[in-house]
Amino acid sequence: MRRRTAIIAAGLVMLAGCGSPTTAQETPPSTVVRLDLARGPDRPLPTEVHLPPGRDRHPLVLFVHGYTCHVSEYADLIAHWVVAGFAVAAPTFPYTNGAAAKLDVMDLLNQPQDVTAVLDAVLARAAKDGDPLYGRIDPDRIAAGGHSLGGMTTVGALGKWRDPRLKAGIVLAGSAREVGAEFRGDPAAMLFIHGMGDQVVTIDQGRAAYDAVPWPKAFLTLPGGTHRNPFMSPADPDFTLVATSTTDFLRWRLNGDAEARNRLAGLGSNFADRLS
Length: 276
Prior knowledge:
The chain is α/β, with parallel strands linked by helices. The protein has eight helices and nine strands. It has helices at 2-12, 75-83, 111-126, 149-157, 203-212, 229-232, 239-255, 258-265, and strands spanning 31-35, 47-51, 58-64, 87-91, 137-147, 166-172, 189-195, 217-222, 271-274. Helix 3 (111-126) crosses helix 4 and helix 7 packs across helix 8 (258-265). The longest helix is centred in the C-terminal third of the chain and has 17 residues, at 239-255. The radius of gyration is 17 Å and the shape is globular.
């Protein structure tokens, strides 16, 4: 068992590749509520909840960062979703974030349950009169998404550790490695996006997870995409496509937006569309 764990860890450690934390650039007048959450004494889960302006109830996206990454590195992608009217909850996971005192790539197996714990806490706060989140989250319109190890966490949260509140999933450069492709429960549409130039999680691994999904699904191939930049850097030529396609997917699945669905259908030959 120890030998198998060592082999797995040696493979997954290649998921490292994020840099130092960056300064998040919020798009005014959005609001960020910071929650001091935890799942037990040894699992702190500090969470940023990014809220669109106004006092409406918004669909929620729970976003999971990659291995050795920082939530701030996804600030531009998160801002794109917030501008489109989605609230985004972005936890920092205790043993896989870039500032962790003790890194443990195999803590991946605990993260899907962390997703559920964060959802529990966020929804409880949203139902509590006087809380900054009160009345701001629609508990019936929730999706999860993540990059790299966060994409694997998302697969786990829709599979072996299924959270029934999730209506959709977004997997960015992720796979089913170690969490398994045991999708269960009510259908939750899924969008996979993967770069052909990804040398960390190969596109074949991403497609294997996609093939196992029994629900409405789509796979967007980025012919020149790498593992990191299309999802983190607005300077990358694929970033805008990632931002707009994920936003349209969320608009369609969580808001019932027919025009967003039509835009997805028009993405072309690199978009394997089985959403209907």
